[in-house]
Design a protein that fits this description.
Length: 204
């Protein structure tokens, strides 16, 4: 069943929260306006990943593509299995690849709307580190995202966003040393560029 809502909101994550509140299925996921599924098997893979009763959710990989062509690969966000403690250093999977059982979503709450574009990292920190949900990683690209999102436009935006991320994690009580946090965040971003040569997509 489709439900279209067109109205003013308090930013991207307020709009996402509206979608989460309206969701009626057993599994919840978010696909943003400039995102598309990388292939037609994504939802089948989600279904298989969530079959075990002890699994709360799943996630996978994402590629950034050229905004105009929608095809040329620019970055490869390889999630990998979660290592305990990584969230305190700013690790997270791309949120458009995250699918949660609705019963599990109720345990961690929704996105914060007072920290801007860093709400996805804070959400993932609650998910993986604070509440320790059981998340299954599927080593496949599920989403193509057009480059140019609100968190990636300018270096100043990135630095400002990283600081807000650190403050949000500190409020959760899981932040690391700020120097370690910024260094690890930088390495995570660099890796998304270095891994682009290993990205395997249908038809490539």
């Amino acid at each position: 069943m489709s439900h279209l809502v067109s109205e003013s909101d308090d930013g991207i994550y307020d709009a996402m929260n509206k979608g989460l509140r309206l969701a009626t299925g057993d599994v919840v996921g978010l696909l943003n306006a400039d995102d598309v599924f990388a292939h037609d098997r994504v939802l089948t893979q989600v279904q298989l990943a969530l079959q075990p009763e002890n699994v709360d959710g799943c996630y996978a990989d994402l590629v950034y593509v050229d905004r105009k062509s929608g095809d040329d690969l620019l970055r490869y966000w390889r999630s990998n299995e979660y290592d305990k403690g990584s969230a305190r250093y700013g690790w997270m999977p791309p949120h458009p690849t995250i699918y949660l059982k609705k019963s599990s979503l109720g345990r961690i709450g929704r996105y914060r709307t007072d920290i801007g574009p860093q709400a996805d990292l804070e959400f993932c920190a609650r998910l993986f580190e604070k509440h320790e949900l059981v998340m299954h990683y599927v080593p496949d690209v599920w989403v193509r995202m057009r480059a140019g999102g609100v968190t990636n436009r300018q270096v100043s935006d990135i630095l400002r966003g990283n600081w807000k991320s650190y403050v949000a994690l500190r409020e959760l009580g899981i932040a690391s040393n700020p120097v370690c946090f910024f260094f690890r965040k930088f390495l995570y971003r660099v890796r998304t560029y270095l891994d682009i040569k290993s990205a395997k997509l249908p038809g490539s």
